[in-house]
Amino acid sequence: MSGAGTVLSVRGLDVAFRVGRGPRARTVRAVTAADLDLRPGRLTALVGESGCGKSVLTEALTGLLPGTASVRGTAVLDTPDGPLELLGAPERDLRERVRGRLLGLVPQSAATHLTPTRTLGAQLRETVARLGTARTVAELLDRAALPAHLAGAYPHELSGGQAQRAGLAAALAGDPPVLLADEPTAGLDRPLVEHVTTLLAGLAAEGHAVLLITHDLRAARDAADDLAVMYASRLVETGPADAVFATPWHPYTAGLLGALPDAGFTPVPGHPPELSALPGGCAFAPRCPVAAECSGDPAPVRYGDRAVSCHVPEEVRA
Amino acid sequence: MSELAVTPRTAAGPGPWRPAGRPRPGSPRGRRRSGRSRLVAGAAGLAVLVAAAVLVPWLGGLDEGAVDYTAIRLPPSAGHPFGTDSVGRDVLLRSFAGLAVSLQVAAACAVLSTVVGTLFGALSGLLGGWYDRVLMRLVDAVNAVPHLLLGIVIVALYRGSVLAVIASIGLTHWTTVARVVRAEVLSLRERPFVDAAVSGGASRLRVLRRHLLPAVAPQAVLSAVLILPHAVWHETALSFLGLGLPPHLASLGTILGEGRQAVLLGSWWIVVFPSVLLAATTLCVAGIAAWWRDRSLPRRRSEQAL
Predict the structure, then answer these.
(1) Is residue B17 situated within a structural domain?
(2) Reported ipTM
């Protein structure tokens, strides 16, 4: 993964939250030293267990973290006016230039992101007017594969899948080159998951850079061009999806693939650590079947277009 | 002998189980839930009352202030359907004339306090932090002074004018609305759809106007309805102290205030008839407000499937 041809390049992203007060104060490290590149025309899937920091990553990129968060690192976004560093950007820049226009966010549980007292059409119209694009409501609904009559529907009249696609329609209103989709398939059944991921893959094929955050490894395998695996706040393995699925280097990636139905539903033993009490060194070591062979250093090491932390892949050792 | 408090549901029993509170299809309860009857009853009742308030004094061609010392505290009869008061004035004429005045005063007070309260509460809830603290302490300060005292000061400054009475009641009763609206805004503003609007670049004012107020308005209107009868009573209290409406203007408040003493002499009609008018008016307005609340929240509207 190189800096060339990327539209969004994240380097060394750290996000930590201070929780509690006084003697009970703890620091929750939600994202640690994350390197990630999003490229136009490619769908990057970010997978990992619940609570490993996936959503916090998108919140950091869009500047939507709560005030208790502290952020380090860089995230450089290609804009028409040259590169823009997102993490240090003033709120005004994020609001006027970035959100909606350069970064489209499809939120987790899109239904709650729609104002309950107004129709979907009215809200899409407001979004378009605010962003100043020439899109029409009918066009947006069509691109999100929603029937046109839903423009007159109130949010509570949408089904879960329709609400997710409505969120996608709103994210598309500003023609953003980068789309961040935070579990857009959560709670949907198989055909709808496929529908949404196919939509996102289609958008990637049209030239958007798409980040798909998901629990759903099958959806990731079907749609993703690149794969990033997150464990306990770190991106433990990144690389082209085909290569990672064919030969997972990190034992955690291998464990996740082993939990797929066609691999025999074998879960990774143990539980992920609390993000407020991460061990030094490799956080996966207590669950790792091959911990003895590893360096124990959690910093990812790059091998060609793939990167893996802690574990030295056999191909490289040989 | 054993008697069961609950009828066992046997095959011949009262039929299949059904969630509590869910009306059977086609039952009259189902229709009442739709809220349309509320609107019809409320609107019809209010129309009759307003028409009566306008027409009775006019059609009668009589002076509701006319004093007749030969007919003091007469019980209801054909000549005086609502009876007469302590100085022989016709209670029916006075009640409807008073209703007209009271309705104007109360409606103006309700509107004034709702607007001020909603503005205060919404700003307080939306801005939060120090703004919230300062604004809400101001509300506490207004509440800490007895309403009547504050009202008396305002009325004393501008004696004998209807506007002063409206201001003195409206400016002391907005605090309840402010608290209700603030609480509602505080809960709504944490919802993701507000984050979505803000992160999309909507200004605070726009968030307030397009996303929060439509959801808050029904609550605000309901508390305005509660102010309606209270304003009438409050005006009575002012009149009792001689600071209310000018004495020649009959209002429900002044009638009730005077009637209170006559009740001890057994003249119940002087209090009962104006009270019934007041209660009926309040219920009619409440019915319309409840209907409107149900209509203005899309989720409730589609539950009722009007």
Answers:
(1) no
(2) 0.70
